[in-house]
Amino acid sequence: MKNLSPHFKSIILQKTGASALIEKETIQQLWSGYGKIIRIELVDTDVKNVIVKHVQLPRQASHPRGWNTDIGHQRKVKSYQVETHWYQHYSKKSAARLPDCLATETHGEEVLMILEDLDDAGFPLRKQSVGWEEITACLAWLAKFHASYLGETPAGLWETGTYWHLETRPQELARLNDRRLKDAAPLISQQLNDAKYKTFVHGDAKLANFCFGADGKVAGVDFQYVGGGCGMKDVAYFVGSCLDEQSCERLESEILDTYFSFLQNELPEKNEALEMEWRSLYRVAWADFHRFLKGWSPGHWKLNSYSERVTDAVIKQL
Which of 156, 182, 183, 204 is the most buried (most CB within 10 A)? Predict the structure, then answer.
């Protein structure tokens, strides 16, 4: 992976007012070799560091699970277009904390996003395991995020947010061996798509995409799969990313009560119809992700008896 081009370096200097920059560290490589996220130190300016998401389309993608296909490639290309559009047109409306975007630039097949460094902004912690306090903080973040975009049309974003939704995953469905779930998949997806109350979902709201502050506050990152949908998709996916199956089951009511108390507080007035609809779709959202996971990676650690029971109950109610 080559370093930043002179063109991109000049854009960063121009947008930040720095006299020079230092490529300090690569924070991570993007999925399947599509670029990298780098921390850049700035010289002679008020901002000490910025985070640069530098997308370069690979000549030969290398997917960790062998899904090197044109469908996958087009989905990723679109995801970076969506993220750029999101930062340009929507991100500032979010009541939930996320990085400020200083600039975006597309040059040939490369994309650059210059973002606030959340470590410097007081969110330096990343967590691999969390307790109830952190879960509550993330649920509060999701509630703020969903309230910010309730009823908005996702123009320029994914019409249906999340990276696993059925229309973008025909190959995973084809490989799904669970015949009952395979037959039910379109109906499960339809129930979510037919929700009367829709917002923007983050689309990849796993624990790894939250940055924590020492004061317990959180910020969210990574908006490649932001788009329209029912907020329960984010909540179910987040919960599955950080709790074992016993905790998912034991805390289900408490999780929903907590999320909805935050959501109602964010709305101009209480919306009981929305809460009733979304509560009924929590397990449907869970089954929808379970369908994807079972086709994508049948041995995945997240596939457990709770997910099977939830999905079974959802299919029976269709």
Answer: 204
